[in-house]
Every structure is written in C-alpha cells, then in structure tokens.
Amino acid sequence: MGQHETVFTMEATPIKFGPGSVKDAGWELKRLGVTRAMLCSDPGVVAAGITDGVVESIRAEGIEVDVFTDIRVEPSDESFQAAADVAVAGDYDGFVGVGGGSSIDTAKVADLIATHGGEIMDYVNAPVGAGRKPPGPLKPLLAIPTTAGTGSEATTVAILDIPAQHAKSGISHRYLRPAQGIVDPELTRSCDPRVIASAGLDVICHAAESFLARPYDRRDAPETPDDRPPYQGSNPIADIWSSKALEYGGRFLRRAVADNDDVEARGHMMLGASLAGIGFGSAGCHVPHACSYAIASLKHEWTPPGYPGDHPFVPHGISVIVTAPATFRRTFDADPERHLQVASLLLGADASDGDAETLPAALISLMQDIDVPNGVAAFGYGEDDVEALVEGAMKQQRLLVLAPVEVGPNDLAAILRESMENW
User: Is 226 exposed, middle or buried (0-12, 13-18, 19+ CB in 10 A)?
Assistant: First the structure.
C-alpha cells in the first residue's frame, strides 16, 4: 500500500444557462474558432424543430454545418462508429451535440476519432476495451442538452453498449469534456414526461453516488499526474455541486414530470443535471452505475414507454435508480451522517435523526410518485440472471473502487436480489 492521495482536481465546462440561450449557438462556435461543424442530433430532436433552430443560428454566423442524425438512443459501438466514419471523412474543425446524452456522447466520440484516429474500442475503459488515453485535446465541441439528466455537457465521459460482449462501458478522459455548454430550459417542452423521469433519476443518482463516494484521500496516490483518474472520490468542491443537484431533484423532479410547460421545474432539473455532471465528473459514481451497465446490456427485452420504439432497451436513469435503494442501505454504516444529508436534501427537511432506511425510503417514494418500474425484474431478469449481472457489474472496476465500502461479487449479488422488486 503506497502513500494516500493528497490532491484532487476540479474542472468544469463553461455553461451558458437560461431560456433563449440556444440562440447563441452560432456565436459560441464562432468564438471557438469553428468554421465547419458536424452537428449530431437524434431524429426525435430534429422532428421537434430544435435542431433546425440551432443550424440556423450557426449558419447565420457564416459557419458551415452538416447534420448527422443516425443517432441510437443508448448508443452502441456500432452507432458510434457510424458517426466517427462521417466525422473522419468530413474534415470538420468543430462539433456540436444537440439532444440527450446519446447525441452529445456521439459527438464526443466522433470528435475523438476525427482528431486522433484509432478504433473506438482502443479508447474504451479497461477491461472491456484497451483503455488508451487520447494523446491531446480534441477539436471544440459545443454541447446543447434537450433533456435534464445525463449532464453530458459537463462531463468527461461517453457511454456505449457493446452487444458482442454483453457489456456497457465508457470512454473517459478529461479531453472529452465539451468546450462549451448551452442549457436552455425551453428545449425540454417537447420532451416526453417519461424521458424527463428517467433523466431526472440519473441526476439524483449522479449526485448521491458522488456525494457518498469514497473520499479522494483514501485512494492511493498516482505514480504520475497522468495516472490520476478522472473520477477521484468525494471532495469538498464536488460536494457543493452534488448537494445543490440533490436539492433541485427533490424539489423539482415531480413537477417537471407532471407538466411539460413547467419551465421553472424543467429548468431547475436541467441546471441540476449540469451541476451533478460537474460533481460526479470529479468525484465519480459507484455501485448503482456499475450495476446499471450490466442491467442495460445483458438483456434487450423491455421497450420503455415514451421513447422511440425502434429497439428494446432500459433507459439509463431507470437502470441506475433500481439498485440505488439497496446500495445505500448497504453503504449506510460507512458514513451515516452523509447518507442522512442526502436524504435531507431530497426530502427538503431535516432527516438527521433517521436510520439506514431513510434514504432508500426517500428514493422509493420518488420512484413511485413519477411512476417508474419498481425493480430489476421489470426488465425480464430473475434469480437465474444474478450471476451474469454480477459478472457484468464487476467489469466496472473504475466505478466500484469508488464505493464507500468494499464491494465484491457476493455484495453485488445481494444488492441485485434485493433490487428485483423495491416495493
């Protein structure tokens, strides 16, 4: 065991927030020196008319822009490759992602391959991929979210499904962080409430997991600065961002799901997504996210309501939240005070006299109120699948090392069994 870490880092995407801010898209690209851009946007966002408005703003500044719409919700290595091939051939000097995390992550990977070459699996986190680090910065990327969940506009990661391995993983490096984000609450008006529900639960899990992650100074110090991981463990600055995101999630998610035109609620959830993205971009996530990758990749049987029906999948926020109550029961003893702080922020009331069930109960109440599935079994899983789910989750060591308690196969099996039905 070497010396413990004494350093943590905090980096953040510049964020422009507010109703109508999307009109500045062209101005921001021009400021970044972009003359020819590839814009990644999924068909649903295009159909809503959002993409056309961004394109108009960009062209008004004299910037060429090509729109790529072959975006898969919950992207795969194949869908990322399709975008990367277009990016390499297009000779672009800037990129734009307009949509949910799928569109923004697609733009990140297109930018990565266009800038530095190589195969996508070269950069995917080990042990699923080779874990190669980008050798230098990418071309400017402008991220414009239209949902209120992933926080991809503020993060250093792009997530993908790898069907051939029955695995889900990511590419994670500081160079993937967008150069600028534009967060406009008006863009969520056309978003289905069930998408808002899943995305909002992702905000809450990002924030809760990062707030409750193993403290940065309990990790071994890296041999070189280049070896310091993007996800470093909980730290005082990340706590500020994550705690505010938890407050917003508890106050506004129910309202954001209930009313498409509640711009105040949806705006706060969008801002919460960015805040949580900054928080977990430094501190990291752990067990619920590790389990979610296995849940989302092992079976493809469930078609979620409110999403495009072209393929079955489990939306990311839902795949994360279903194991969160059981996880936080198990991690409670590592730091009861911090677990109860999370519960207090979500509840909007002092829960400091609570116990190990207080935070799980707060999460389950929220899940029930916004009508999401009650557990892992809803997606077609049962006892016979636990071993395979554990195997998939154990591949996510970059996340599991951040859990506040040691987590091995038996612990994950217990969490997954307990999470088959949360109520």
Answer: exposed
Choose between 306 and 234: higher pLDDT: 234
Residue range 354-371, pLDDT digits in tens? 999 999 999 999 999 999
CATH code matching the domain that covers 21-183, chosen among 3.40.50.1970, 3.40.50.970, 3.40.50.740, 1.10.530.10:
3.40.50.1970
Residue 94 carries which DSSP code? E
Cα–Cα dist 84/396, whole Å: 25
Closest-CA residue to 176 (of 240, 237, 106, 81): 106
Q: From start to end of 146-196, where are the E strands?
A: 157-162, 167-172, 180-183
Backbone angles phi, psi at 144, to 5 degrees: -125, 95
Estimate to the nearest angstrom the gap between the alpha carbon of 242 and the chain centroid.
13
Q: Could you name the CATH architecture of 193-418?
A: Up-down Bundle (1.20)
pLDDT for residue 310 is more than 80: no
Angle subtended at Cα 153 by Cα 374 and Cα 379, rounded to the nearest 5 degrees: 20
> pTM surpassing 0.70?
yes
**pLDDT one-digit tens code per residue, 127-153:** 889 999 999 999 999 999 998 878 889
Encoding tokens for residue 103?
Answer: 């569109």
CA distance 71 to 44: 10
pLDDT band at 2 (very low <50, low <70, confident <90, very high): low
